[in-house]
């Protein structure tokens, strides 16, 4: 439920936030008095939010057959994530558990990633090597689905927004050609993982996106359980489908894979803590080529300041994302004040954002995981 925009700034709220700003329509208030009291702050953002509300159709534009369900109907509370997944037999199953709105907590999720299965037939998921290498830059979900020979009713984009957003960010930074020439590893520092910890195996799709490249990802964040600090994982296969006779069940050994010219693996290591606190430990093993922080919430958490100062110092390209344009604007303001320079990559809509609107966002704006990208 959208909260009163003036909540916590003065007198207590008198009820639910049912009164919306008549100009932008993006924020709500519990009473006329709270709306009047908050205007001194809101007038600075009102014009921006009004423009963002006009862009709603663009944010909701996806090529999938289920797009209306996953955007407008969820936003209007006609459907939920759970009802959407139940309809497809994916509710509370394996990889999909953390996508349910009824998930109890991240700490209670099963991390037995080695047993992950798409719970979908082979025709609906990328469970084997692609039929051909990429001949051009992927720029949309439609182009990815065409490359991977997937039908537009397959829901795998709900999970694959994680590796595809990472891949797209590397392309935006102009690192694509440099990566293809690497004879060592592409080393990525991934900041603030949460849901990702129960969806580790989706990063195996980077094997298809970066053939012949060995990829190492360090995932660093306070949400990593202490029991998993230092854990190392290797993804040398794609997630399997549910078809018993599919070729994905015929797992090749590492030695056999090594003979494949397109062979690559993705290795990962988990680090509990804040990036600036663990940086020296991590870089004993792995100095990054690229840093990413999905759905960072920079403006909401003061702990980001020393991390951004560190990124400035080490001069490693970094791309952050956030759920909506306003959050990205606030983050950009924080980052540019630290760098004393404009963003190297201006705020832009991510074509590989998760195609499922966030339920109960803080504003009336549609929000999506990995929705807007920006870089430094």
Which key phrases capture this entry?
alpha/beta, two-stranded antiparallel sheet
Strand content: 5-15%
Q: In DSSP terms, counting alpha (H) and pi (I) runs of 4 or more, how many helices?
A: 13
Label the structural class: alpha/beta
The largest sheet, given as strand count, sense and whether it forms a barrel, is: 8 strands, mixed
The largest sheet has its strands arranged as 5-6-4-3-7-8-10-9
- Average pLDDT figure: 88
Helix content range: 25-40%
SSE arrangement:
Elements: E1 19-20, E2 28-29, H1 32-42, H2 46-54, H3 56-59, H4 67-75, H5 81-87, H6 141-147, H7 157-172, H8 176-180, E3 185-191, H9 206-209, E4 214-221, E5 232-235, H10 254-258, E6 266-272, H11 275-283, E7 290-293, H12 304-314, E8 318-322, H13 325-339, E9 345-349, E10 372-375
Helix pairs in contact: 12-13
